[in-house]
Amino acid sequence: SQFNGFLRANETLKLSSLPFPTAFAVESNITSLSKTANRSGFLSFHLETDGTIKRLPLVVRHIDPVDGKDHYFPPFSIRVIEQYLGATLLFRVNESGMEEVILDHENPIVIPTNSRGEMEVNYLGPRGTIPAISISDLLDENINSKTKEAVRKKIVLIGATATALEDLRSTPFDPALPGVEIHATVIDNILSHRFLTQPYWKPVVDSLYLLLIGIAFTVVYSHIQPSLAFLFWAASAGLLFYLSHWIFLNKGFWLTDIYPFIENTAIASAVMINRFIEEGKQKKFIKNVFGQYLSPRVVKELINDPSRLKLGGEQKELTAFFTDLEGFATFSEKLRATELVDLLNTYLSEMTDILLQYEGTLDRYDGDAIKAFFGAPVYFDDHARRACWVCIDMQNKLKDLRVKFKKEGKPELLMRVGINTGSMVIGNMGSTTRMMYGMNGDSVNLCARLEGANKQYGTYSIISESTYQQAKEFIEVRELDILRVVGRSTPIKIYELLGKQGEIEESLKKALPLYSQGLINYQNRKWAEAKRYFENALMSRPEDGPSKVYLERCEKFIQVPPLKNWDGVFNLSTK
Question: Across-strand partners of 317?
């Protein structure tokens, strides 16, 4: 049944240019029904790309192959409502397509559609949601009162529901919903004003919605641990689907749901892949850079937790550690190049192994010198104790190496060590094209001066007072002097590092009390008494360097006393 004339448009508008769905063939119902029906409409449905029925066209164009004229047809469900309400179906169109669909009667009903004249079907539920009665019950002459009451003053649609009759359609709620129930759903939607709407601004809302959640997902995935990413992805995907479903059921308006899911998955995948690549690069960088001068265990800690690594410069209180071989220039001239390299490699390998054992960081080798620090890039609060113990273990190991070198006819190496704890800058240093992770600052310079100060006292291990204060429970020391080094106006107290707590040589045990008493007398300007104690200390330990130094000073001050304002500070004139 066509309804040309029910389409109202501007006289200059060509209806054939409008984007209405097109039917390529028209097949009439059986003759007996066609002749007796007041109205009729098309029964077929348009399938979406996913094979389901979501929309129903309220007008379909058919071009007559004989006369070439356009004919327009409404659906069966609309015809039923027209009959039920005694209404007239009215379409208003413009250049873009359908503008408005109205069931015109005493209470007009505006049916929302898209520009193609398609109405979104608001399904009430799966099969059986709309009551169904067997046709045999209606045709039974002995129909019961319950069945009569069920159909009284109701719209009754007669259609196939059995599977064998092949009128089952796939819908969002049910993959096998009888076609007659779809028409019944459309009738209910219109009479109950239960419409699904897509206002003109929906594309803008969808775009803004996708933009905002895309930004939110990017921020979240960039900051959470990969182990939590999957849980967040699943939770957010479920929440978005639930939100869309709730708005759909309660407000009759639906947000885009599949695109946020795709966006969520894409962003999660992209961020995680990028983080995996970046973490791989970061781990490779850490291993390549820090593997040269950190213990394998510390490198592993940094790889597992890169946040502990701060590559930019930072100022921290750490412990610096400098070593140098005594008389290196002299014996290096006596060795062939290959012999010297072999000797240094053996020495540096043994010393570096001890350094890394205590998780010290190798700053660099400077010829025969080792420059290192403790407490960065992985911080530990006992950095002073570790530095002292490294020094002690290195000196003990060097004793064993001297025995080995002597048997091989090689020089017997003696090593001077300076240790200082203080504020220093740690980080990447160098040019824009070549950098090294290292230390710098006044405390580092002081450490270098302490290493050199060993020459003045005949010692091989000197630590500053700041180091002593942090490690004194773990080490044995003796006070050496109050020293003012080159380039520094403030004097510091220095100590000779003798061994780990409770570990002192027997000869030194006898000499220490005498040395300590001699130092007290020296600081109190009692030169003669101090001299006597230092002489006795040397009788117990003839090779004791500090006792020799102070004995010489006492003899000098006995001859020429210092000025009255003498503060006991020794000024180191060389580096």
Answer: 423
